[in-house]
Design brief:
With 484 residues, the protein is an alpha/beta fold. It has 20 helices and 13 strands. It is 45% helix and 14% strand. Helix 5 (160-174) packs across helix 6 and helix 11 (310-322) packs across helix 18 (432-448).
């Protein structure tokens, strides 16, 4: 990473972190209920991890309660180094239904399952003759019933009995003043609901994503209306019982207040996702990961399976066919994205050398890919609910980099933030001509060494994770009845 980035990170991080150290008040303890926590990796752990990292500077010592045997395809043990030594992390085992489903799949009787936080695992068809075919069909039907109709709101609900019992023990043992829960998985909020009712401790429920309003959730409810009714009742109970609700976007807050008129506006707060300046102050993790002579366009994190990348790939192909310079220079890097869906297309159109898939890498390495790229790339499903109410966590790390950002998304929150920051080029995901022209303009700007347009640094600075931890600490003070 550049010296400038390191210096900026050090300056911003030190300035904001130091702002909360003047108080001599003894640290109060908050029980952090989080199914997703390191060494699990991926975007789902970052928000909770950063709160845990910086809350002690704001008067609150986290006591983390997570799962000991979580099924997660993404592992990043390097994140454990960010947990302060003063923070105790308790891990309670669960019956991991997704792991069990994978074991069954390993017998060759069914397809291997994918993550099931928002859907049942993929099933092989029940075809085939004889006893093996009957067994396959029976297993498929049993898994359909289990994942679609029993494990509600998600497979992680199996953690509930052990999680509730251990949480109540930890509250007494550690002298916890407040309970904080993070979702998804949404079963974590159900655990916290029971802990609240049995302990009487004030509770802050944090929704990293909306629950019943999610696109995939609504599809699941179409297949199982009963599931929809149960989850709607659970969400309503959580919102009613929580002492405070936190969401990540203004639109999600709007949804909650409109959906639950019994909730006062003062009970629902927005704390966006953000970036941690300390992440960018670290030196590069070894040698360069990208060839600096190429025009590197990079996306980090997984691409939602419902997103259709063919319009983008087709325009990459046209540009490469029309301009030998673009074919020689352009490199599109998908870092941490599952490959396979477009392999045939890329091979058939000679884009193998232009489009590159990199397996999941530690968070620190993913930031190095961003630092060495020329344009940062993100995409959202072209559905109003996604564009209007959902923000990708990677967006804020992109903003910190102060590099051009190409976003394939509908008008909405992402487009508004990029416009305000001065960094974004926003194109409808289905607008092939617009995608082509945007890519060409970004390439020509790189080739000709054009300077970036003005960037709103003050606006970008509000997404600092240290500052956001301070906002959460203020909410803890409020629900605990502490003077502010």
């Amino acid at each position: 990473m550049s010296v400038e980035l390191e210096a900026a990170a050090t300056s911003v991080g030190a300035g904001v972190a130091g702002a909360g150290r003047g108080s001599a008040r003894p640290l109060r303890k908050v029980l952090v209920l989080a199914y997703r926590f390191p060494p699990q990796g991926g975007g789902g752990v970052q928000r909770t991890l950063k709160f845990v990292k910086y809350l002690p500077q704001r008067g609150w010592l986290p006591v983390v309660h997570t799962v000991s045997n979580a099924y997660s395809a993404l592992q990043d043990p390097t994140l454990l180094a960010e947990v302060p030594q003063s923070v105790r992390v308790y891990r309670t085992p669960t019956l991991e239904c997704e792991r069990l489903a994978r074991v069954v799949a390993g017998l060759g009787l069914t397809a291997r399952p994918r993550s099931t936080e928002d859907r049942a695992p993929a099933m092989a068809d029940g075809g085939g003759g004889g006893a093996r075919g009957l067994l396959r069909a029976g297993l498929k039907a049993a898994r359909d019933v289990l994942f679609r109709h029993v494990l509600i709101p998600d497979p992680q609900i199996a953690w509930l009995p052990a999680a509730v019992a251990r949480s109540l023990y930890l509250i007494r043992k550690e002298g916890v003043s407040v309970v904080y829960s993070s979702s998804p998985p949404n079963s974590g909020q159900v655990v916290a609901l029971l802990v609240k009712r049995l302990s009487g401790r004030p509770w802050v429920a944090d929704f990293r994503d909306e629950w019943t309003e999610g696109i995939r959730r609504k599809l699941a409810y179409q297949r199982s209306p009963r599931r929809g009714r149960v989850e709607a009742a659970l969400e309503r109970a959580v919102v009613r019982a929580a002492d405070h609700v936190v969401v990540t976007t203004a639109k999600a807050r709007e949804h909650f207040l409109r959906k639950y008129p019994f909730v006062g506006a003062e009970k629902v707060s927005m704390i966006t996702n953000g970036f941690d300046p300390a992440d960018f102050a670290q030196p590069p993790a070894g040698r360069r990961v990208l060839d600096g002579s190429h025009f590197n366009v990079t996306l980090t994190g997984n691409v939602e399976a419902m997103f259709d990348a063919l319009p983008f790939f087709s325009m990459v192909r046209e540009l490469a066919d029309e301009d030998a310079g673009i074919r020689a220079s352009l490199r599109v890097n998908f870092v941490g994205t599952r490959r396979g869906k477009y392999d045939d297309y890329l091979r058939d159109h000679q884009l193998d050398a232009t489009v590159r898939y990199v397996d999941y890498v530690p968070h620190r390495v993913s930031l190095q890919y961003l630092a060495e790229s020329d344009v940062l790339f993100l995409c959202q499903i072209p559905v109003y609910e996604s564009a209007s109410a959902k923000l990708s966590g990677k967006l804020f790390e992109y903003l910190y980099m102060r590099k051009p950002i190409l976003a394939l998304t509908l008008p909405g929150l992402t487009a508004d933030i990029l416009s305000r920051s001065g960094l974004g080029t926003v194109v409808d995901p289905d607008d092939r001509a617009g995608i082509k022209e945007a890519l060409r303009a970004l390439y020509l700007g790189w080739r000709d060494g054009r300077p970036l347009p003005p960037v709103d640094d003050a606006y970008i600075g509000q997404f600092d994770r240290v500052r956001q931890a301070g906002h959460l600490a203020e909410l803890f003070d409020r629900v605990a009845g502490l003077p502010r």
